[in-house]
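Example 3.2
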Amino acid sequence: MNIFVAMLGLGLLVLVHEAGHFFTARAVGMSPRRFYIGFPPAIFKVRRKGIEYGIGAIPLGGYVKLPGMHRPAPSDLDTFFGPALSEAPQLLAPLDRVKRRLEDGDMEGARELLDPLQRALDDVELSRMAERGARKGINEIRDGLGGDAYWRQRTWKKVGVIFAGPGTNLLFAIFLFAILFVIGSGGYRLGFSMETDAPIVHDVRSDHPAAQIGLEPGDRIIVINGHRVHGVEDVPQLIQQSKGRPIMLTIKRSGMKLQLGPARPKAEPRMSVPQASWESLKLTGVITKEIGASLGRLVKGHRKEVSSPVGIVEGSSEALNQGLQTYLWVLGLLSLSLALLNLLPLLPLHGGHIAFSVVEGIRGRAVGREVYERVLAVGIALVLLLFFIGLSNDIGNLGG
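Structure, written as C-alpha cells:
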C-alpha cells in the first residue's frame, strides 16, 4: 500500500509540472492540443475550444501537448509518410511540393499545400498503420506551421512556458515546506537535533534544557521516560507526550549507558505564516546548494548519491512508515529535485530548451536542425547514463 501511495505522490509531482506548462502556455497565447491527467491512451476524453482534455489509462502524472515545438523540416514528412509512400507512390508528387516549400523556408506556402496533400491521401487505399502515420504527419506539420506554434513565439514566451514546469515544482516545494514548518512548529522541545537515520544527537542548543542536563552531540538516545526508542521518529513523539512535564533520558555515550535529567521540555511558539515562508525559502536554498554540490561530486566519480525512480519510490515508501509529515517532507524534496534536474542545460531537459531559445533569440533565427539533433543525442546519452547509474545503485541497495 505504501508503495502505491508513493507512486501516486510521484505522479502528483509530474501532474503539477505539466499543469505549469499548460496554464502558462494558455496565458501567453499558445493553445495546447491536449491536457491529460495520467498518460494516454485515453479512457475518457472531451474536446473544448480546440483542446482535448482526457484521463489517461496510466494513472501517473499528466501529459501536455504543445503545438509546433520545433520548426517543421522536410525530414519530418519522410518519417511520417515512409510506409504510405511504399503503398501509394502517387503521394510522392504532392508530398515533394510541401517538402520543397519547407526547404525554401516558405512556411505559408507549405501550409497552403497541406490541403492538396490531404485530398490526395483521402483518394488512396492504405493499410491502417500507414494511413494513421500519414494523417498524423499532416496534423503535426499543420500544427507546426500555425500561428500559435511554440517555435514561432517570442523568446520570453518560449522561455516562460518551458520554465513554468520546473518553476511550478519549485513553488510547490516551497509551499509544502512552509505548511510543514507551520504544522511542525509549536509543541515542546528539549533543544537538540538528530541524525536523519538514527536517534543520535547531531546538535545541541546551548540555551535549551538539553544542554542543561548535559546532552552532547554523538549521544544515542535509547530510552525516554521508560519508553524504548526504536527509531528517530520516536524521540519527538515521546517528548510531545510529556506535555511539558519533566522527563528522563537514557543515552549511550562511548559505549556506556548514562541517565540524564530530569529536564522540563520548553514550550515553543507556533510559527507564523511569514516566518514559515522565510524558513521554507532558506531551506530551499540550502537544499539547492547541496544538490549542486552532489552533482559536482558525481562529476568526480562519487555516484552513490544518484537514484532512479525505483529508489525514489522505495525511499518514499519508507518515509510513509515514519509518518505522514515525514513523507510530505520527502515529497517536497522530490519536487525541488525534479525542478532542479529539469533546469540542467541539457536536451531533452527543460534547461536545454531554454538555452536553445535564448541562443535563437540572440541570433535572430533558429538553430539548424542538424545541430539540435546532435546536441539532443548527447543529452539523451547523458540522461540515460544518469538513469542507469541510479538504477544500479538502487538494485545494489535492494540487494542489501
